[in-house]
Structure formats: structure tokens, C-alpha cells
Predict the structure.
Amino acid sequence: MNVTLIDYGVCNVTSVERALQKLDAVTMRTTTQDGIARAKALVLPGVGHYAALIRALNEHGLRKPLLDAIGSGVPFLGICLGLQALYDSSEEAPDLPGLKLLPGEVRALPTHVKLPHMGWNQLRPVRSSQLLEGIPADAYFYFAHSYAAIAPNGDADAVATCVHGAEFVAVLQRKNICAVQFHPEKSGAAGSRLLQNFLRLAE
Amino acid sequence: MTLAHRIIPCLDTDGERVVKGVNFVSLRDAGDPPALAARYNAEGADELVVLDIAASRDRRPTFLETIRRVAAELAIPLTAGGGIRTLPDARAVVQAGADKVTVNTAAVERPKLVSELSREFGAQAVVLAIDAKRNAERWEVMVRGGRDSTGLDAVAWAQEGVSLGAGEILLTSVDRDGTQSGFDVALTAAIARTVTVPVIASGGAKLPEHFAEIFTEGSADAALAASIFHDRVQPISALKAFLHARGVEVRYPC
């Protein structure tokens, strides 16, 4: 399985790359429109500030090729910011439009809990999906974020949610669009299984 | 279903080898960083910290290579630090494979460093390490490996660090470090209940009860230890089984 990682320069893609390679995926990195256009499967990793990711996509001219690829059915996996970027916008940088593939605004988690939401947490299943196949219901995943897709309109695309101060989308799937708020590449065996499920789904 | 308390082994290195001091001095060799990292990854550690405690400038390339080799063994997050004084220093550590960077002395000397790092990598990647030592009714911030007092109040400095953009506090009790007499519950609780970010307690761990205590009475979000894990005095899997049985939320089984 060939997987193209979008390497927009502001986050470390090495750990995602290594996790996929351990599952026998052939990975390549791209920063170009052409690289995205040729991809068989796409992964958009990301951690840090929403604005950094959106600006990098815009500056490298990657927004349109990414939307074209997803629109043509190329399997896509967004990780952390890569999930948040799918929505209309984010409270973290309200002036920078997201990819607008999913409706709603990414919002700040409430401040009565410790932020960032950092560490290992469990999921609440919403519906069955190939993405969570073979993963125990009580498995933990590693999260590191302060903004989230907080139950946007009882999100029809949500596969599982997580709760930290508020309930938010942790795993989603809409046709070929898959995304997770946690870091599967940092989530031990459960995370590795999720990546494997994505690879199978992408085959 | 809540956020699990994290168990974090720490590799203090001289750049290349793992070393361990008692009360910040008398170093001894304790192993190969990637080998220990692989072991902890398999045993259920929730995260790993690698510190360059030599932090002399000429050892820097060696330490970055150590980070690369350690990161290659992990499917859990990695925090690295020791001697990070500038944004480029931190970039090098992140590019070598660290998910988070920790700063200590340099942040005390130039607090703006915390903001610079937070702006570049996000608050979730910036860990403010504080070495605190009791002085009468309060705790003072110590620097340069716990040797020099700054006169700063540790609770106030933790709060300032968070307002500057730190996403986590790694709090070491200089009084307890290396003593294996238990974490400093009063110090940890004073800071964990004041700041809005997670707090990692460090210094003094030996028994499983010490971990249970720091997570409950100490309000710590994570607990860090070194030699008890390196020397197999306290296997991580057994520690987690103990905490789970006590009703302390941990990632178990993992």
C-alpha cells in the first residue's frame, strides 16, 4: 500500500511515517500539488496551532489539489489538526477558513478542566466503522490538544467521541474521509491497529 | 472514562549513555537509551522523557542522535530537553523526533523563551521543568541541575510559566530526588491545584504506594521516575496493575 504524507513543514511527520512503515506501507512525503494529485492514499498529520497548518496549506497551494483528491475518492486520514482542518473554521484562528468538507466550527475545550487535554483517554462508540475494527472498546489513545470538534450538531460523521470537559469527535468517517483527534502513531498497539485499519480500508 | 494518570520513565543521559545521580550528583552509568526506550515502550510506559544532563555544547550532536535512536523505538510520546536555550535548540530536538521540549534554567533566565516555543510548536509541546526546594514556608526554584537557588517562588513561577504558554509542568522536588522516600505531596498539590495545565511529579519515587499517593493526595496528572525503573526495582506493568486495583485511573491493560 502506497501512502503519501503531506509534509507542510511545521510538524514532525517522522513518527507517523515510521508507524505506517511498520505496517508494511510504502510511504512518501510531499509538499507539492503534483505529489498530492498522484497519491493513492493521503495522510495529513498535524499538531500545534491550527493557523500554522492552514497557512502552510494555502502558501504551498495545496488546498485545491487536496480537495480535488478527496473529492475524487482518494482515501484520506487526518490526524489531530488534520481532523480539525476538515471543518468550516476554528475558534483558534477564526479568520482562516478550513477545508469546509464537514460543517461546523472547531471550538476551544471548556476551561474547567486541565488544558491541553494531554494524555491517554478512552472512546465512546457512536457507530461501527472499519476504523475501530479489532480494537478493544476500553482501549486508550494519546491526545494532545486544546481545541476540538465539540459534538457539532450531534455529528453524523462521528464514529466515536471522547470526553474532556465536553464531548467531542475523536474518530470520524465520511466515505473516503477518515480522521482522528488523537495521535495513533503515539498510541501504542491500539493506535497501530487503527492505522492498519485505515490501510485496509484504503486498499 | 477519564484521562488516565501517566507513568513516565526518565532517561537522564550524558548525551549518549543513561546516567543517574542521587540528589543531582554522583552519576553512574545505567544503560543504553534506545534499549531502555524499547523496554519501556513494551512494558506500558505512557510517555518517555530524555534529558541531557551534561548539556555541554560539544555533546549536542550526540544527544540529538540519541533522541533519533530513542524516537525510533517508541509508539508513545517523547519529551526531550536539557540545555535548550534558544528556539533553534528546540527546533533541532523536535526535528530529531521529540514531541515535546522541556526547558528549565534558560526559561528562568529568559522567560520569553517559553512564549517563543509555545508560539512555534503549540502549548502542548512546551514543558516547563521546575526544580523546587523547600525553604521555610515555601518552595524556591533551583537552577543549574538543582544547585543554585533563584529566590523565585515555585508556585508563582509555575503560574507565570503557564501564562507564558507552557502546556505542562514537570515538577521535581530537589529535596526528594534520589531519596526513594516518596514524592513530595505538599509541593505537588500546591502547584497542581493552582495551575490550569497538567503537572508531572518527579523525585523520590520507589513504592507503588508513592504513586497512588501522588495521584490522589498530590493531584498529579503524571508521575516520573528513573532508577527504580532502570534497575527493575519497580516494573511498570506491575505498578500499573497495582494502581488499577486501587481504583486509580491508569492505562491498563495496555
Remarks:
- The longest strand of chain A covers residues 166-174.
- The two ends of chain A are 7 Å apart (CA to CA).
- The CA atoms of residues 2 and 158 of chain A lie 26 Å apart.
- Chain A touches chain B at residues 12, 14-15, 18-19, 47-49, 111, 114-122, 124, 140, 142, 144-146, 163-164, 183, 185-189, 191-192 (CB under 8 Å).
